[in-house]
Amino acid sequence: MTNKDIEASLRQTQARIRTAAERAGRDPESVALIAVSKKQSAEAIRAAYEAGQRAFGESYLQEALDKISQLADLDIDWHFIGRIQANKTRQIATHFAWVHGLADSAHARRLSEQRPGEMPPLNVCLQVNLSGESSKGGIEPSAVPDLLNLCETLPGLRVRGLMTLPAPSDDETTQRQPFRALRMLRDQLATPTRPLSCLSMGMSDDLEAAILEGATFVRIGTAIFGERH
């Protein structure tokens, strides 16, 4: 895609977000767009940045580190949205502002210990597996309170909310069910001192359903950059 194509796709995605938020009776500004740039070039990210996008999501650590280095002149908000591996936690803790997909107590401890002291705590969303699919990452809903409580004792982490990656569906009513379940789980666990205000849910094919159920982050790749190379 050309730079103009990326800019046009970004504008179209932003319009979808606005329309869905208005349909839900929400302020469109309450929904943040993460441009999922895995398998995209540094040049494509720069084009989206020049069109106003600031938050980018990466899933493959080495690829992400290469692009972070190439784009060091830009004030990008980097979000790690892939599966976490124990041998990758130091680099994640050092180079990212957010992690979407924390689902393991050992990873939580490592990320906290390895977060550089001069940096603010790493923002994390706990990944919840609502479908029971073994192929999907995340913890069972019943395990979320224990991981939340652990993370609150770790000075290098700041739990901001919950994240999920549901099974795909073409039907909006079906799409909304896991997103509603995540919002209800958040509502059960939130406290005044732990508001869990972030719900990271919704991608290119189901962002409307996610926003209708309260998403505050939508993670959009294909609709902005086209198919991955």
Automatic annotation (TrEMBL):
<comment type="function">
    <text>Pyridoxal 5'-phosphate (PLP)-binding protein, which is involved in PLP homeostasis.</text>
</comment>
<feature type="domain" description="Alanine racemase N-terminal">
    <location>
        <begin position="10"/>
        <end position="228"/>
    </location>
</feature>
<keyword id="KW-0663">Pyridoxal phosphate</keyword>
<dbReference type="InterPro" id="IPR001608">
    <property type="entry name" value="Ala_racemase_N"/>
</dbReference>
<dbReference type="Pfam" id="PF01168">
    <property type="entry name" value="Ala_racemase_N"/>
</dbReference>
<comment type="similarity">
    <text>Belongs to the pyridoxal phosphate-binding protein YggS/PROSC family.</text>
</comment>
<dbReference type="InterPro" id="IPR011078">
    <property type="entry name" value="PyrdxlP_homeostasis"/>
</dbReference>
<dbReference type="GO" id="GO:0030170">
    <property type="term" value="F:pyridoxal phosphate binding"/>
</dbReference>
<dbReference type="InterPro" id="IPR029066">
    <property type="entry name" value="PLP-binding_barrel"/>
</dbReference>
<feature type="modified residue" description="N6-(pyridoxal phosphate)lysine">
    <location>
        <position position="38"/>
    </location>
</feature>
<protein>
    <recommendedName>
        <fullName>Pyridoxal phosphate homeostasis protein</fullName>
    </recommendedName>
</protein>
